[in-house]
Amino acid sequence: MRKWNFGDGNSLCSVLKPSEWRNPADIISTVEFNHTGELLATGDKGGRVVIFQREQEVCTEEQAPAVVLGSGLQVLKFNLPSFQSKNQVHRRGEYNVYSTFQSHEPEFDYLKSLEIEEKINKIRWLPQQNAAYFLLSTNDKTVKLWKVSERDKRPEGYNLKDEEGRLRDPATITTLRVPVLRPMDLMVEATPRRVFANAHTYHINSISVNSDYETYMSADDLRINLWNFEITNQSFNIVDIKPANMEELTEVITAAEFHPHHCNTFVYSSSKGTIRLCDMRASALCDRHTKFFEEPEDPSNRSFFSEIISSISDVKFSHSGRYIMTRDYLTVKVWDLNMENRPIETYQVHDYLRSKLCSLYENDCIFDKFECVWNGSDSVIMTGSYNNFFRMFDRNTKRDVTLEASRENSKPRAILKPRKVCVGGKRRKDEISVDSLDFSKKILHTAWHPSENIIAVAATNNLYIFQDKVN
């Protein structure tokens, strides 16, 4: 696979899902590619799941559509740039709306007088075993297993029903008919197969499918539960950090994930900036961790905000399973499973905000939870920032780039230009001052195609898909 070329003519095509109005229900809350990268699912604050499917057809530049409408959702297409000739054939690989369905509805807990939002917190795909697709989606309390399948034939010729589906009088049935399947327009159906509820007192922040594909875990602030896909009425509690006296509570669980290859191993991160690796073979209740990852704090950098900005918002195993990546407020860190005392790599995402922590605390931005992702070969990592900026770091060359997901800057056939933030002094023409950054525009959720240089970036209620240059 070609490496991502930073800032030297890297050409990207872009797909976005815009809304001219700012309906809070349309704000995207999670983005996830499936295991092949052919499907891309997004969840939003309104409890909806939208699935995009990659079109594999080959077309010329003149045939490439500019606008596609589907499922009531407008999707603007940016054609692939840099065609060498007018009729040169290229693989489009564009993503179009495949299915849209309502996953969760708002609920009310009458015992605790609490409203349960319909917002989709996480989506996780299961590997495809047959013609249908399966995915897990969760809000704060309930996890659902969805089956997404296609239907292009309908049965006709019932014996006990008429053509309109009404039951016939058995006395009028004198002959036996053999039902036949007739072609029909393709229909994509999403049906809930399992509902996993009533197991979490606190808000679910993570779900992770195990490599045995028989179990998965769900994590909230104080507990992690292990579920079997076939059993919905009970789960097994594998981590419980709730103290006997809640006044003694010093940290909460912020994220958790299974090892990609070892079904007995998982990690979870905390609000204190620590990571715990647990082995389910050691004990049934994994209160005692196998490994404990923590970087000692530099006393010279200690401040009022130190504990807040050290809280880990996301943790991800590398595809190889050798490394762990964590994201806190200002940095992305890569940890080697064999070295617990400090990370092997630290990348500054937006260190220029260190002087603005006070104002970020006042407007609550300091509590934003940014995600981070690996590329398919674990050589590049990506995470989001403010002003609709997202950052990429090449682990081999140590080069980094800042790009912007913007309708104004993502023009058709255009090349994404690197952006730079000016901290102080004289500002160049192509730089943006740190004082003029828009903190209401933020890239919290990102995803990377499992094998190609295709990334999905969620910017509030817009979805951008950038693709590497096609030669």
From TrEMBL:
Keywords of this entry: Repeat, WD repeat
Highest taxon of the lineage: Eukaryota
InterPro entries cross-referenced by the UniProt entry: PP2A_PR55 (IPR000009), PP2A_PR55_CS (IPR018067), WD40/YVTN_repeat-like_dom_sf (IPR015943), WD40_repeat_dom_sf (IPR036322), WD40_rpt (IPR001680)
Family matches, as PANTHER family: PROTEIN PHOSPHATASE PP2A REGULATORY SUBUNIT B
Family, per entry: Belongs to the phosphatase 2A regulatory subunit B family.
Keyword Repeat: yes
GO molecular function, one term: protein phosphatase regulator activity
SMART domains named among the record's database cross-references: WD40
GO biological process per UniProt: regulation of chromosome segregation
One Gene Ontology cellular component: protein phosphatase type 2A complex
Keyword Lipoprotein: no
Record's protein name: Serine/threonine-protein phosphatase 2A 55 kDa regulatory subunit B
Gene (UniProt): Ppp2r2b
